[in-house]
Structures are given as structure tokens and as C-alpha cells.
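The aim of this short unit is practical: by the end, you should be able to scan a pair of folded records and say something sensible about each. We start with the first protein, listed as its amino acid sequence and then its C-alpha cells.
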Amino acid sequence: MEMINAIGRRKTAVARVYLTKGEGKITVNGRDYREYFPQVHVQHNVTDPFATVGIEAAYNLKVNVKGGGFKGQAEAVRLGISRALVKLDAEFKPALKAKKYLTRDSRAVERKKFGRPKARKRFQFSKR
């Protein structure tokens, strides 16, 4: 098995995931994922696809991620990992799909409209 790559996106974050055979090392932008994502609940986003299919320490991951905030980046990494696992073995697809890890969350910030302070907010109305 050579390298399997996949792309995950969320909001403005884009993650490129490279999956290789190994001992379960996950590096994000050249650093360990625990160091890159210090919050424990965000670390679970990264490791959940492996726990779902039951192969925690069988593959190494190299992830390049840019754009967005830490939560959007973690969810982009999760989608990329899930897509790479499905490329690796199609048997993993039902379990990952049941947890909605293969769905691209398309919600993004709405653009600001002219003549308004924000996208939908209006300036205060004054009758007199």
C-alpha cells in the first residue's frame, strides 16, 4: 500500500490528508496533532474516524491544513481522514456515513451587504 490522499473542507479551512501504513502517528502542519489542537474536544474530532472503524494505531497521517479557525480546521481534517479511510477500504463507508463524517458541512459566513452593518442586521430605525 502506498500513500492515499484526500481533501476535507469546512467553512474556509482546507485540509489535505496523506495516509500511509505505520504506527498511528498524526502530524498536522509538521507538528503533533495534540500540540496543534490543544483542546481535548477538538482532538477527538481528529481521531473519531479511526475509533469509528476500529483501527486506531495502524496508519500514519500527514495533514496540511490552512484557512479558518481551529474548530473548522479540525472538522476539515476529520472529513479528509474519513474520505481517505473510504478510499482505503469501502467496508468503512456505512459506519462513517452513519456518524455523518462523510458529509461536507457547507455552512459558511454570509457576505456583508452594502448599506448594512452586517449581512442581515439593519441600522436602527428612527420614525422621527
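Turning to the second protein, read its sequence before its C-alpha cells, just as you did above.
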Amino acid sequence: MAVRFDHGDDELVETHEINVTPFIDVMLVLLIIFMVAAPLATVDVPVDLPVARAATQARPDKPIFLTIRADLSLALGDAPVSREDLRAALDAASKEDREQRIFLRADKGVAYGEVMEVMNALRTAGYLKLALVGLDGGDGK
């Protein structure tokens, strides 16, 4: 004997509703992330930088060039000089005129810290007028 239970139609009923709860959850999380990240992405230091309109200055008749070579050795003009003898060599080259400008040039491979050490040595020696020498124009390479 066969028994049949009737469960109604064999057709599946389609539901036309979309569950939007996960979508809303994701949107709220993204909103919070952007609210936290947006202030961090902007620089909020107002600075009104001046425009540089400095004219090139006339070069002195006998400029004093102090050079930092790639091997960190110093040269005053064309003559090598040690860091210990720097003050005496500068006094001799400037005839002890500490108001005279010293033109400092360094190889581009020299670290910034080394340039600062030489600048501090110049300050200690009493030479406060310093000009950094670079190449004019070019494409920056």
C-alpha cells in the first residue's frame, strides 16, 4: 500500500525582497573609515610663503671656496686642508676678516650631516657669512 502526503504545490515561491542589512552595515563601516582617514590625509598648516625675488649678487674679486669632496676631505681653494687646521687656513685666506663670505660647495654624494658638521666648524671659527654653491639652471639631474 502506498501513502502519499500532500504538501501543496511542488513549485518554489520566489521572494522578491532584497536583504539590505549587510549592505547598510558595509556602508556604515566605510563611512567611519573615511571620517577617520580624511583629516589625516590633509595637511592643515596654513603657510603663506613669500616669493623669492633675490637678484644674483656680484661675485667678489677673490672668493674663498671651501670644498667638501666625495671622500669627505676638505679643500680651501685648491689646497687640501685638514679639519683641525681649518680655522688657521681660513684666517690666512681671509686675512682674519671674519666678515668675509665663505663659499661652501660639496659633492652631491656627501651626506647632509657632514655638510652640517663643516658649517658648525665654520661657525665655531667665527665665520658666520656662508654661501652654498650649486649649479645654475640645468634639468636638476
